[in-house]
Automatic annotation (TrEMBL):
Gene3D superfamilies, alphabetized: NAD(P)-binding Rossmann-like Domain, Ubiquitin activating enzymes (Uba3). Chain: B, domain 2, Ubiquitin-like 2 activating enzyme e1b. Chain: B, domain 3
Biological-process GO terms, alphabetical: protein neddylation
InterPro entries, A to Z: E2-binding, ThiF/MoeB/HesA, ThiF_NAD_FAD-bd, Ub_act_enz_dom_a_sf, Uba3_N, Ubiquitin-activating_enz, UBQ-activ_enz_E1_Cys_AS
Source organism of this protein record: Patella caerulea
Protein known as: NEDD8-activating enzyme E1 catalytic subunit
Family affiliation: Belongs to the ubiquitin-activating E1 family. UBA3 subfamily.
Record-linked SMART domains: E2_bind (SM01181)
Role played: Catalytic subunit of the dimeric E1 enzyme, which activates NEDD8.
UniProt entry keywords in alphabetical sequence: ATP-binding, Ligase, Nucleotide-binding, Ubl conjugation pathway
Length: 437
């Protein structure tokens, strides 16, 4: 098949071979820009799901030929309505390989390399190969990890950031009819951890609304799930709700319906009930398409300098009409990931190690998942608690109940914390005083 034909890249050349009022000050129209996109530019796409399929298609149609894609999943039948690079015959195959093959066959000249793997399987030498990394992930942990990896690859000379060590990260996220796209220049602009409070741990309805003033079908379902189920114990004492057990879901559906009738609320269905119980947020193809298009445009802008990149965070919703808003998320001076500053944490001598662990898990700043804590006493490393290795967990579990005084930890003690949300361990400095809220 011909790799190119007359007029094939006219849509791109209109932008790369002419200037315009929004062009970056350094931009010079040139035929070399398209050549750079096609021959040199190397982009990594993380995720080959709803956003990833769109991203691969968009980037390939913008003229980018050297693309790698990482995804650890295989194709499920429920993906086929929106992950359009997959067909029924592909169910069970790996997303990365299937998506790469599809693009390579469909878009002549494009060369997508698939990695059926986790992002954690690769180290800095792999990530350093790319000009730009674009993420279409559904996991905040993975997002934070790749963010941490790109930050760990920055080099500083006399405290000055070496600009050539920066690999820009373009990140897209969607949840139902809501989405966002952002551009991160690691070390320079707000990183994922700088804005961690934009990802609330979980959306919950206020209990008073659920109990007294329900307005939505979801409020009624939550009422049954949170208040009625433990009170009535319909399937026996202590039996937890199983969102995949039709008997459980039907019981919740029936009771939710009764409550909804009392308040004149309509819209309760089996599907919605199961969705609320299992906390399923439906994936919406159009939201993915918009967010991926925004991300691909940012990759194109960064790669060609044809236009100033997004500064730096765009929100989008298409719940009622279409709404979008762009703002500059601020880099946090003491960000745990990108500030290069150790974190001060304050506790009392009588607090237990468990209190520190709980704080790291629950604070909106850190939102860790399974932290391991080590320290150095008189130059010797000491593991205070480690969750990831079973034998060490058992040996160190007793420390959780000990007070900081019993563990001989005092003010100024450095604690090193490793967590799946970051590739490198973080340094905390313990201050004895009052416990942090
Ligand atoms: Zn940061």
């Amino acid at each position: 098949m011909a790799v190119t034909w007359s007029g094939r890249w006219n849509h791109v050349r209109k932008v790369t071979e002419r200037t315009g009022p929004f062009a970056h000050p350094d931009f010079e129209p040139s035929t070399e820009t398209l050549q750079f996109l096609q021959e040199v530019c190397h982009i990594l796409v993380i995720g080959a799901g709803g956003l990833g399929c769109e991203l691969l298609k968009d980037l390939a149609l913008l003229g980018i030929r050297n693309i790698d894609v990482i995804d650890m999943d295989t194709i499920d039948v429920s993906n086929l309505n929106r992950q359009f690079l997959f067909r029924p015959k592909d169910v069970g195959k790996t997303k990365a390989e299937t998506a790469a093959n599809f693009i390579n066959l469909r878009i002549p000249g494009c060369n997508v390399t698939a990695h059926f793997a986790k992002i954690q399987d690769f180290d800095a030498s792999f990530y350093r190969k790319f000009h730009i990394i674009v993420c279409g992930l559904d996991s905040i942990i993975a997002r934070r990890w790749i963010n941490g990896m790109l930050i760990s690859m920055l080099s500083y000379e006399d405290g000055e950031l070496d600009q050539s060590s920066i690999i820009p990260m373009v990140d897209g996220g969607t949840e139902g009819f809501k989405g966002n796209a952002r551009v991160i220049l690691p070390g320079m602009t707000a990183c994922v951890d700088c804005t961690l409070d934009l990802y609330p741990p979980q959306v919950n309805f206020p209990l008073c609304t659920i109990a007294h003033t329900p307005r939505l079908p979801e409020h009624c379902i939550e009422y049954v799930r949170i208040l009625l189920w433990p009170k009535e114990e319909p399937f026996g004492a202590g039996v937890a709700i199983d969102g995949d057990d039709p008997a459980h879901v039907s019981w919740i559906l029936e009771k939710s319906q009764e409550r909804a009738n009392e308040y004149n609320i309509s819209g309760i269905t089996y599907r919605l009930t199961q969705g609320v119980v299992k906390r399923i947020i439906p994936a919406v193809a159009s939201t993915n398409a918009v967010i991926a298009a925004a991300c691909a445009t940012e990759v194109f802008k960064l790669a060609t300098s044809c236009c100033q990149p997004l500064n730096n965070y765009m929100n989008f919703t298409d719940i009622e009409g279409v709404y979008t808003y762009t703002f500059e998320a601020e880099k946090k001076d003491d960000c745990v990931a990108c500030s290069q500053k150790p974190q001060n944490i304050s506790f009392c001598e009588s607090d237990k190690l468990q209190d520190i662990l709980t704080y790291l898990l629950e604070s909106t700043t850190y939102q860790m998942k399974s932290p391991s804590i080590t320290t150095a006493i008189n130059g010797k490393n000491r593991t205070l608690y480690m969750q990831s290795v079973k034998s060490i967990e058992e040996k160190t579990r007793a420390n959780l109940k000990k007070s900081l005084a019993e563990l001989e930890l005092c003010s100024g003690q450095e604690l090193y914390v490793a967590d799946p949300t970051t590739p490198s361990s973080l340094t905390f400095i313990l201050q004895m005083g009052t416990k942090m809220e």
